[in-house]
Write a structure and sequence with these properties.
It contains nine helices and 14 strands. It has helices at residues 19-30, 61-68, 79-92, 106-119, 159-168, 190-199, 216-227, 261-270, 279-291; strands spanning 11-14, 35-39, 47-50, 53-58, 72-75, 96-99, 122-124, 130-133, 137-140, 149-156, 174-179, 205-211, 232-237, 274-276. The radius of gyration is 19 Å and the shape is globular.
Length: 292
């Protein structure tokens, strides 16, 4: 089992013929992902060969879905065109849109996320690394060769920390790893993933990675306390971050005592979550819980 993405998923890549789209489509295919088409209105009707794997280019998401049965799109388009790309995908009725693009204006994100919710499209991102169900499929830029299938579920604001925890726990493996993105407004939240992992019979333990800024981790802590029966281990990036300064992601800004790593740690620990102060310590907590 896995959440949101399985070996049955059929993936379109919006922006596949651009530099980043080409590079990461090649990597997704090498990992076994079922990429069934690209989308570029100016190059519709062409075929791109990836190591002898021909991938057709469609003029729209709707056309690609009609031709292939695609149910996932990965968005590799510049920030100025992201709103239009996600809106198009939602209007076509696709089930999942994974928005990798960084630097999307917040008002654009608010608009396309509202449209997607009304159309029943789940959005992961923007400004995220995507998600991967090891051994099955990967949608985005998460490396496929740093871990293996297993029974840990991972949800993270940070792409880099996603990769590090995947590597630290590579001998155990993961059901699904989801990078939700660190922008102030994102489609899929920690709570959404906690809910899915709680319901997934093949996930035994959940790792939650947060960072300074906002109150998403505090809200996740309250949800864990009331609804999650599986063990959860957490890590909060930014224990040494100075107050009042944006650090890394646009959403990672601390104001007074609100949004600090310490406040988030306290909220999670009050909900029964073991919280590491470093990724390596977090991995040790996971091992300790699994060995208990």
């Amino acid at each position: 089992m896995a959440i949101h993405l399985t070996k049955e998923s059929k993936i379109l890549v919006q922006g596949m013929t651009g530099g980043e789209g080409m590079k990461h489509t090649r990597r997704m295919l090498a990992a076994g992902t079922n990429v069934v088409g690209g989308v570029n209105p100016r190059k519709a009707g062409r075929t791109v060969d990836f190591h002898d794997r021909p991938v057709p280019v469609f003029g729209s998401v709707a056309e690609g879905m009609d031709a292939t049965g695609a149910d996932v799109t990965v968005v590799f388009v510049p920030p100025a065109f992201t709103k239009a790309a996600v809106t198009e995908a939602a209007d076509a009725g696709i089930g999942l849109a994974v928005v990798i693009t960084e630097g999307v204006p917040v008002h654009d994100s608010v608009a396309f996320l509202d449209r997607a919710r009304k159309r029943g499209t789940r959005v992961i991102g923007p400004n995220c690394p995507g998600l991967i169900s090891p051994g099955q499929s990967g949608a985005g830029i998460i490396p496929a060769d740093i871990t293996k299938p297993g029974r840990i579920g991972l949800v993270s604001k940070s792409g880099t920390l996603t990769y590090q925890l995947m590597y630290e726990l590579r001998d155990i493996g993961f059901s699904t790893c989801v990078g939700i993105g660190g922008d102030p407004v994102v489609g899929t939240t920690h709570i959404d993933c906690l809910t899915a992992f709680q319901e997934d019979p093949e996930t035994d333990l959940i790792v939650l990675i947060g960072e300074i800024g906002g109150d998403a981790e505090e809200r996740a802590a309250a949800y864990i306390r009331d609804h999650v029966t599986k063990p959860v281990v957490g890590y909060i990036a930014g224990f040494t971050a100075p107050e009042g300064r944006t650090m890394g992601h646009a959403g990672a800004i601390v104001s007074g005592s609100s949004g600090t790593a310490r406040a988030k740690q306290q909220a999670l620990e009050a909900a029964g979550v073991r919280v590491g102060r470093t990724p390596t310590e977090t991995a040790r907590h996971v091992l300790a819980v699994l060995d208990a």
